[in-house]
Amino acid sequence: MNKTALITGASRGIGKACAIKFANEGYHLLTPTRTELDLIDRNSIETYVAGLAQPVQVLINNAGINPLGTIGNINYSDADNLMNINFWAPVILTEMLSAGMKDERYGRIVNISSIWSGVTKAGRSMYGASKAAINAFTKTSAVELAPYNILVNAVAPGYVNTELTKTNNTPEQIEQIKSHLPVGRLAEPAEIAELIFFLASEKNTFVTGQTIFADGGYSLL
User: What are the structural domains, with CATH classification, of the chain?
Assistant: First the structure.
């Protein structure tokens, strides 16, 4: 295995689970810290990619933030940062790293979306918009990059047992969420990482342009 995977937001949650999975499967990992790669700053992204010593075959755009804000109470500074991290950073990374993938005629890109791109809840307008934008970008980039054997997909997790879920929901709310989920529980980060790994691996030879909802049936209700 000589493939390199770049995973953003790999310090915790789904990103950390992905890093563990890819490392166990023999991939060389790039998991930059916020100091090394500031996803709010386009210059930082461009400098980081330009300084890479090896080509990247797999890109996992996982990093994201979810500041809540209802209509009339949206903090636009937070919203700008949200769009930069959740949408523009994946766009820029895809644009820059796909150039090398084209040369190799191989690449796998997985964008981490959210159930809030397809269903909604109060306070999620900006977050949902950023993830809906990622879904649309996934489709178009998949069409444009398919001739180069670069497959692009998105995974839209539901409620996952992560720090972000615990930050935005009280313990009582989490128990209530579990009771409404058809599967009766939250997902574990490692479960989502398994799906991401398949889409990003050589085992995936035909699936592209899809947004797969991994939500335990939440969006069906």
Answer: 4-220 (3.40.50.720)
